[in-house]
Structure formats: C-alpha cells, structure tokens
Write a structure and sequence with these properties.
Radius of gyration: 16 Å
Number of helices: 4
Order of helices and strands: HEEEEEHHEEH
Strand content: 35-45%
Number of strands: 7
Number of domains: 1
Structural class: alpha+beta
Shape: globular
Strand order of the largest sheet: 1-4-5-6-7
Length: 133
C-alpha cells in the first residue's frame, strides 16, 4: 500500500518551527461553502490567500501560502490578483512556499522534500497589473 504524502501546509508548519518562527494555521475547512461544481466543502484561506500567519523574530509578520511545486505559478497569480494581498504587501511580507520531492517518491515524512520560497513583493503587484493591461 502506498504511503500518503504529508500535506504541504504541514510540511511548511514544520519547516517554520525548525527555523524558530512562531506560526499559526489560518486556513480552514468550510463544510457549508459550495465548490464551482456545486459540491459542498472547500478549504478557505484567510483573506483568500493566507494559509499560515508567521511571526519571525527578525522579519516581523509574514503571510504564507503553501502549495505543490507544480502549482507555484498558479498560486503566485492567485496572490497577485487578490486585493487583500496587495494591501497586506504595503505593510507586511508575503511568502509563497511550494514543495517538490527531490527523491521522486511520495511519503508521509518530509524527507526528500524541498521548499521553493518566493517572497511576493509590492513591485510584483505593479508588474502583474501592467502585464494584465
């Protein structure tokens, strides 16, 4: 039987704590919200883009979105289209963490998994808006 993969948010939580950051999961399951296909139940991010809120002793407050390596670009666009994220970026930091398994196997341990960490900056919002118009 194949072992189940550790969820990306859980791997990010673990990595944050190992780096000495204080972290709180703000993404939640909403059993009453409907998916585009009409089915009930979706994961909802805080302000539509935050999975984790982080307090870093040197960098301050950081909003973190966590995903798979294959969805990195899609999640970057999701953040850059979000008005709340733009407002957040004026005062705080945003990081996009995507995970890829360098060993090629899927397991419940974080062994072999490496994060790609991309800071989302205010300048990225300006560039994204200019490209869209």
């Amino acid at each position: 039987m194949a072992r189940k993969q550790l969820p990306y948010t859980q791997m990010t939580l673990k990595a944050m704590r190992e780096r000495g950051r204080y972290v709180w999961k703000v993404e939640f399951w909403n059993q009453y919200a409907r998916r585009p296909g009409g089915e009930l139940g979706i994961r909802q991010d805080c302000f539509g883009f935050i999975d984790l809120l982080v307090i870093d002793p040197t960098e301050g407050i950081i909003a973190v979105q966590s995903t798979s390596g294959s969805c990195h670009s899609e999640h970057r666009k999701k953040i850059l289209r979000n008005d709340y994220a733009l407002r957040w970026a004026h005062f705080n930091k945003i990081e996009l963490w995507s995970w890829k398994n360098k060993l090629g196997n899927v397991s419940v341990s974080a062994k072999g998994w490496e994060p790609r960490i991309e800071p989302i900056t205010l300048n990225m919002f300006v560039e994204f808006t200019q490209q869209a118009s």
